[in-house]
Amino acid sequence: MSVLDLRRENVGRARPAAFALALVLSAASLTPISGASAAMAPSAGKPKARPAQPAKRPPPLPAAEVAALQQRIQGRDAEDIQAALATVRSAGPTAAALAPAIEQLLRRGATLPLLRAAMKTLGALAQTSSSAALAPYVRHRVEELRHEAARAIVTTGGPDAVAALREALHAGDATLRGLAATGLGAMNARDALPDLFEALDRGVPQAASAIGLVCDPAACQKLLGKLGTISFDVMASGLEALLLRSPPLPEAVQLEVVQRVRNLATPDARRLLLDVGSHFPADGQARVRAAVEAATAAMPHNDDDPPNTGAGEARP
Amino acid sequence: MKRLALLLGPLLALGAALSCGGGQTQGSVFDPLWANDDGKGIAAIQRQLAPAPPPRGVDVAVGVAQEGGRTLIVGAPLRGGEPWTYAHALDARPAVAGSVVVGLGRRELFALDAAKGKLLWKRSVQGRLRAAGDDGRTTVISLEPRTGRGSVILAITHDGEVLRQIEDDQDIGAPAVVGRYAFLPWQGQYVTVLDLLHGGEAARALLRTEVSHAFSIGGALFFGGAAVTRVDDKIRLGGQGRATTVTLPARELPGNPRWLNPGTEVFPARATALDKTHIYARPTVTGPAGLADDRFIATYFRVVTGFDARSGKLAWVTLGDADIIGGAAYEGGFVLCDERGDVTFLDAAHGAPSARLSLGRPVRSCVVQADGIKVPPLPRKEPLLRQLERVVSLPDAELVAIQRFLLQELSALPDDEATATLIQLASQGRGAPALMDAARAALAERRSGARFLLAALERRYDYLASVVHPPPVGPIAAALAAMKESKAAPLLVAHLLDPATSLSDLVQVAEALAALAGPAEVPALRTFFAMYRGMDDASLLPVLVHVAATLRRLGAVEILSRAVTDPWTADALRDRLTALDTTAQPSRPSPRPPSGPP
């Protein structure tokens, strides 16, 4: 699945992975870049309902163009630097060679508009090396810069990014905590599971979907155990992630999830399973799909509830 | 000077009206043209009375309560026994003296046996009750006439016989009586000794301290006001200011409490805020001038502070359950009466509650007389610091003034633990909000307790751990910098980079780092400088200037040189960098100051 695919899906009910990657796109000036998803593959590949198609990586920018852009980025004309950064953002990872120059801009400091543009651009370039330069800005005193840095660092990834976002989970800025939780899920940061559970318990709703994306069976069971103690609205995103993950969780875990949701016997629970059924991956586990169908059929519903469309509309 | 005979009073309708007769006052009582006799007269009276000192008064707490539309006088003997009650309207607070309780309401003046509440006598009068003195046989009463000016003095035996009545246009304060003599303070400087037998002025004491009370305690007679003078063999020196006079050490106390309220005032039956801020002390009855147990206490609503009578130094603090509205000092302690009608005995040495009794109901005002009572003290192990901490930490807006005062006391304690307490008080969400600024200022001045300061710096904002208020980093930084505690440097840079650190704290952190940071802190300082140098924010400017100065001291001048020429540096910062010449490499980099106190 490409980033573009996820964006399209995000138009309707927010999918956990789609939401995560929508943030990435936001950091990358909303330019669909196949290379960006490739750069994220090691960390953000899990949430996808369908394995990403191998994207054809465009060739890097010619050296002369890189040199010219670098010179402009290192110049003293703010407008020209902004324009050069916009060009780099459009080029995406093909302009990866320019990442060090932009990182240097962050390391040396600049005006707020330039810093913000530099962060967006590094997000578009999606180079792990950039995370170290972005990380301090996740703690910037200016809220906008913090958020921009958090969005960008999700796409740059790597240990520095994980560390910065784990720390951001503890911050006083609720938006930042949400971005951090979502980003850790998107980066498949399993080491962050303890923090994500803490965050979930402390009312960071995005932590549910993040946990659903990265949990191992034991952690998934722990998440499931929170049904009833954490509001279903929050839990739904995590449960959905548990059922739509690719590759899927062990069948027994997924069947238990379906059963536990079925046992709730509420309209919201049914709606969740209907939603899961309508997006169930084509290569998903047949018994799980059947259990979802059986559950939605068996659960009581009102006339104005969505019809039971079955799991036939698997994701393309 | 106008002196009115007993029977003229009703006719002129200016003073009290009595229902039966008594002796008419003769002689030049209250004559302002009195010729100073250099204390000879009062000395003679003192010598005359010395063999037969005034008897001790009844130990009793007397409250005014309201029940079912009736006003009740409630008395609780301090030595135990059931409280007594007496229902009678009251126009003013009752007076307790010797062995009687005197009250006045609806034009009826009455006296009760203080021990049992039994009515001794009552008479019709006009005016309002100021105060009374009693020696166990005769009661002398000072009334404010209906006109509100001058005085009516009555001397009445416990049988209700009026011995004397004086009506005068002087305001006469709280009287005392010993045998045939009544002691009447007036004009703030005189105490006239009235011979109740003959009606004339037997002597007059002149004092150089304000006086509006005459009273007896522990078998000794005293004249008091701003200070208290014992009537002993030095009383003749009162006019020269050399009598046995005790004054309280000068201390500014919250609420400006007074030891003795003006004796010429009439106090309402319902206590006011002034009654809740009061000083209680007991002058010594023998030896040099002083206070019993070398203590005096001051109340502030429900807080009681005990002080050393010589130095004025705070000795202890005790917190009551309700606002204290009356009390008295006895040998070994203090007895205090609160709005709930509880009467608590506090040990003079440590302020430990050593006994308690109850009036049985809430009271509107309370008057306590404690003359001969002894209460065994109870130990108190709680150190002064904890006593202070307990009161200062109370989230009670009514107590802010006393809390500020006690915070100063706490700040003066050199103990390391005092630093820990100040950290708590200066932390948002922990101490009383109104005290935070004062606590922060005090914390910045600490020069002890570095281990607590360092430990506090370890704490940072952590939403997941429910640490939603960072420590008071600024004042902690200032204190540690003054202590030259270089262990603080890595902790301070973490707070420097933390957006949860307030801007005001940030300046102090940067200032402290200017003194404490070493080479290990350079990367973090560079990062901070880079992140914010382009921000045109005046509040960040002093922080950046401090950071720049620190970087320069540590030899990291390259980033500063670039910042001066780089177009992205905010203009104001560039100007400061240029002015400070922070780009120049210092000739000899300053080493990091050594760890530990200077």
From TrEMBL, chain B:
Keywords assigned: Signal
Signal sequence coordinates: 1-19
Residue span(s) of domain Pyrrolo-quinoline quinone repeat: 79-205
Entries under SUPFAM superfamilies matching the protein: Quinoprotein alcohol dehydrogenase-like
Pfam families documented for this protein: PQQ_2
InterPro entries for this protein: PQQ_rpt_dom, Quinoprotein_ADH-like_sf, WD40/YVTN_repeat-like_dom_sf
Record-given protein name: WD40-like repeat protein
